[in-house]
């Protein structure tokens, strides 16, 4: 039987949910207009007043917020509550540009942890479970968010943070962890290490909650098989609180968005036109309950599709697809749009590991694409000719998928640096931006 953490909200009839969203949106817009001069100026410039927003149907009238706005307003420019009412900051991993710092009141943290508790309950978590959290703790939202959700569900929580794989496996087996929370790339590495160390047979895991980076269906199958679990996706971003903005249920067919807290829209990233459900575009969120750092029409840059079909789990909140790329990290190679997830799909379909790197460079004004991937250990003992044949096979499969030629290099197992957080998979040496 499907379990819910907040059944009355998670299964609320859509008409009622829409009414709730409208009421919250109207209040939120007034709150932001009154307390955030930066956003008030944007509304004034667009000629929109809070009184113009009467419900969800008026959302499109409001101006967008982007990461550039967050950088410009850094650190306090988008704060909507006095600092003395804030109790926490979290921050993005910030590999490019200036970090984003998000602020939370105690109420904000409470609602965020509720969303994570919904996600844990949706994978079957109860107070009988032992939940091992190996997302990073600290500024990154992964550890603190799932930790808080796990407490709310009443699981015995193992606040491991990331890294120290031997210790992770020791706690996982000694304390009989049943739910694993980490990035999918770290889950794949933990699975590999458990098999190698002979500890796989001692694991009691039943479910994994993996997110924070893109992963494919092939990678899901691989992790599920190696760990003997069900692997569920979870999505979120620091600007909106962290993990738990959306999460998968038993149906594993898209992530339910916590629509009582976040209104989702899909837009064309170039024209900014709002697209109907079912069309692929950039995901935009409006946070309608956040007090300290309320994002209105925040452009996530994540490309995905929204699905309002009813779900077999009984939740009424709409589902989003896995992000299919980012409107800003899609690679354009020799004029062709390439999503790294397409390359991953080919590699895993060809029996390679999920440890790979995509290196894009430019020689004589022409783009080069090199894919380095770790071969499975059994291939290592094969002759150079056999390995070369495999490389050629992958080159052809990539050509069929992407329409362009890539150079493929099979490298020894464990030769690509491992990450304890998000894997570094794309190295774009062209520096086009
Ligand atoms: O990654 C929050 C998080 C922590 C989500 C733990 C899930 C689990 P940021 O560091 O701000 O926050 O990065 C947000 O990561 O815009 C997406 O591009 C990407 N992302 C997050 N979840 C997924 C996912 C956290 N399930 C950015 N699939 C987002 C694909 C994801 N990409």
> Nearest-angstrom radius of gyration?
22 Å
Strand order within the widest sheet?
Answer: 4-3-5-6-7-8-9-15-14
Q: What is the CA–CA distance across the termini?
A: 50 Å
The count of strands amounts to 21
* Strand-residue proportion: 15-25%
| Helical percentage | 25-40%
Work out the helix count: 12
Low-confidence runs: none
> How would the global form be characterised?
globular
Q: Decide which structural class fits the backbone.
A: alpha/beta
What small molecules does this complex bind?
5'-O-[hydroxy(phenylacetyl)phosphoryl]adenosine
The largest sheet is: 9 strands, mixed
What is the mean predicted local confidence, pLDDT?
Answer: 93
What does this structure look like?
This protein has 433 residues and is an alpha/beta fold. The chain has twelve helices and 21 strands. Strand 8 and strand 9 form a beta hairpin. The model has no long low-confidence stretch (mean pLDDT 93). The structure holds 5'-O-[hydroxy(phenylacetyl)phosphoryl]adenosine (DLL). 5'-O-[hydroxy(phenylacetyl)phosphoryl]adenosine binds next to strand 7, strand 8 and strand 13.
